[in-house]
Design a protein that fits this description.
Elements: H1 2-23, E1 36-42, E2 50-54, E3 58-63, E4 66-74, E5 81-91, H2 93-96, E6 103-105, H3 112-118, E7 120-124, E8 129-132, E9 137-140
Antiparallel strand pairs: 1-2, 1-9, 2-3, 3-4, 4-5, 5-6, 5-7, 7-8, 8-9
Amino acid sequence: MKKFFKMMAVAVAIAVAGFGFASCSDDDDEDNGPAVVASFTEQTEEDPVTITFYADSTFAFAGDGRTYATGTYTGKPAEAGEVVATTKKIAKSFFDGGSDFTMIDVPSELDDEMKAYLNRTFTIKADGTATDTTDTTWKKN
């Protein structure tokens, strides 16, 4: 009888250990945001800026570890053709030249030149490059 209880105790211990390992998961359930559709880097000698287009039709301009502007787009940035990017939020430092990169709504009272700078049409080419309405050249990452 003692042998039977010992065997049962060992079986229960093995079962508990097995269930303990089975219940642990290495899956990362964190939301990593929308998937990246395409990403392009500005081809300049200055600090390069990257525009990343996401699957939820949003985009972000970023560089040097900071986000400069975000917004929405229409078109298919992973294919040759036109993509129209409309900036909705911009870093506060864009207007005052400071170091505050808090994102603020784009002011409605901007002049036409500034609106054109913030709201760009990208012409995506089959060779992996793109140009925009400010004559900037971008290379697909």
